[in-house]
Amino acid sequence: MQAPRRIAFPDPSIAQLGRHRPGSPLSACSGALSALLFSALLCTPPSPASAQTDDQAPAPALTAPAALKLAAAPGEKAARRPRAQGPRIDYSLRAEVQAFIADLAARHQFGEDELKALFAQVRFDESIVRLMTPAAPSFKRSWEVYRSRFLDATRINAGLAFWRTHAEAISRAARTYGVPEEIIVSIIGVETVYGRITGEYRVIDALTVLSFDYPRRADFFRAELEQFLLHAREMKLSPLSFKGSFAGAIGYPQFMPSSIRRWATDFDGDGLIDLRASPVDAIGSVARFLAEHGWRSGEPIVFEVRMQRDARLQELLAAGIEPKFTTAELADRGIEVQGSVPEAMPLALIDLPNGDNPTTYLAGPRNFYVITRYNRSSFYAMAVRDLALTLANARQRE
Question: Fewest CB within 10 A of the end CB: N or C in the chain?
């Protein structure tokens, strides 16, 4: 019996940043609507395109004002801050990595020797674990502070310029997928300031460190590492050539590898999918992601509420942010929803803590929940919504 053929990566010396080749599995799936994923951004039940969640402080690389000052325009090199990489670790010698390699070789016909050589080049970086570690229980999250990091003049001006430059693609994505133009623009702005800050970590380093040195979410990141290696092979690029966030998210929209393989689309029609170099592909992919997760065209994102003194908050918050309650059921629990709400529209109670100030409460329908499938954070969803409104109002005045 003939042994199965082992499929190799290209030589890293020639596999620099490049575009996806037509005819590979990725381009084949880009034209068809795929089934729901996003549970841990991989191939299972639903979860986010980017890996940060509400129990973490916002990623400094994407949100701190200092990072905006360091940001360069797309296509330029951003200023880099040196990082201590910690002790030298040869991942190829670790038993759990060797078991992972053997599994990939058996299921996906990778060459074991090639994967061992790849993992021998992985660099441990302690900042990856530090940035992924949740804030201490004593940390008081503040929606007001979080919001201010995204609704700043730099991001708003960059968003308007991005919208003007890519108006045709944004309009076409909105028509194709039923997602408002301002939501598409806002998400790319929140994620990377329109491609200015896409991350300086090697993706192979980030995903390997989190797979084998971050037990809290090791299963999630190990699945993403598998998806990343498949993605690199499909693109005929060396895994060492990809840069991204400390969580392994890639490109303008900061898609995790599984999200790229499931929802990225060739929206510029050049036969290639490239979220790192094609803002038009990113625009279409963001819209497709939201549509595939159940975006409801024409429906609102959030409603204000009025609280009764005896409102049963804990019961409602414990139910989570997936919409389950009608306005009548919320009213029975002391929550009066403001505005015109269809009687049967399901809602969830959303809480936005404000540090030492009073918590903000809102009612979130399906579209609020859909945004949290991109990033599982109520803060994130509200920041996207508020930046979208700001951009839409500013665009009308242009």
Answer: N
Report how far residue 93's alpha carbon sits from residue 100's, in angstroms, rounded to the nearest whole number: 12
Beta strand segments in the chain, E:
201-202, 243-244, 303-307, 335-337, 348-354, 357-364
265 vs 262: CA distance, rounded Å:
9
292 Cβ neighbours under 8 A, 6+ residues apart: 33, 34, 36, 263
Contact yes or no for 251/47 (Cβ under 8 A): no
Predicted confidence band of residue 41 (pLDDT cuts 50, 70, 90) = very low
Question: Distance between CA atoms of 271 and 371, rounded to whole angstroms?
Answer: 28
Closest to 47 measured CA to CA, from 255, 317, 331, 310? 255
CA distance 126 to 241: 21
pTM, to two decimals = 0.82
Contact predicate 320/368, CB 8 Å: no
Mean pLDDT of the chain: 84
Helix/strand number for the chain, H first, E second: 18, 6
Q: Which residue is listed with tokens 């995903």?
A: 207
Active site residues: 191
pLDDT higher than 90, residue 300:
yes
CB proximity list for 76: less than 8 A, separation 6 or greater: none
CA gap 317, 37 in Å, rounded: 25
Q: Do the Cβ atoms of 257 and 210 come closer than 8 Å?
A: no
Asked if residue 242 lies in contact with residue 204, where contact means CB atoms within 8 angstroms, the answer is: yes
The contacts of residue 138 (CB under 8 Å, 6+ apart) are none
Give the CA radius of gyration of the chain: 22
For residues 78 and 74, give the distance between their C-alpha atoms in angstroms, rounded to a whole number: 9
Place of tokens 């499929």: 7
